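Final report, Chapter 2: Outcomes

The project's central promise was a pipeline that accepts a single protein chain and returns its three-dimensional structure in a standardized token representation, suitable for archiving and comparison. That pipeline is now operational. To close this chapter, we reproduce one record exactly as it appears in the project archive, with the input sequence first and the structure output second.
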Amino acid sequence: MLPGMYEFHFELGHLIFLGGFMTIGAVIGATLLIALFRSTRIVTVPGGAKESTEGVLHHVGHTLLRPLAGGTLKISLDDLGTRLLGRPDRMRLPGIGQRITEGADAVKLWRKQAAATIVAPVSGTVVETGGHDDKWYLRVLPDATPVEGENLMGATKVRSWLTSEIDKLQAVLSSEDLGLAMADGGEPLPDLPSAVPDADWQKIYSEMF
């Protein structure tokens, strides 16, 4: 039924078949290209900057660990964490020289009277502090080099986990608010507290962080 094959003729029926076959092929090809693009996509970090995910570890508390020269790590919110908070109204950071412990409270950020407690993704000593405009909050000298595990994920695992986290967010938000909170394609809007000001943000932060 294809050109060059037995019994193919440039007749209406065969041409219709060929057009449909080519359309299906184009759709499959486009789907594969989209999947490839998404699998290698870059992540958005606070402030809208975009950086490669190479070498970055993703913590279940919605923070990113970016290794730096000298063995230190910069800790920032991940893309979903940034969208959940927008621009924090105020923050409380540990002091330089202070130790933080993996899994313990490290940073506290407030938005619209609700507080989000960010846990430390690693244990170590704070050597520098930043803020929302710096696109990171802590620079830490870790006690040990972080590796993938139960709470830390590399690029291969993080996509399915983020999908489940967005599902969790959908469950926390009411269906009425959800339409305002999600942009086309199902991604949360950049500043969710502004998009859904009447939501129970303290409950959302307690569930998501």
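Archive annotation: The longest strand covers residues 124-131.
This record, like all others produced under the grant, will remain available to the consortium after the project formally closes.
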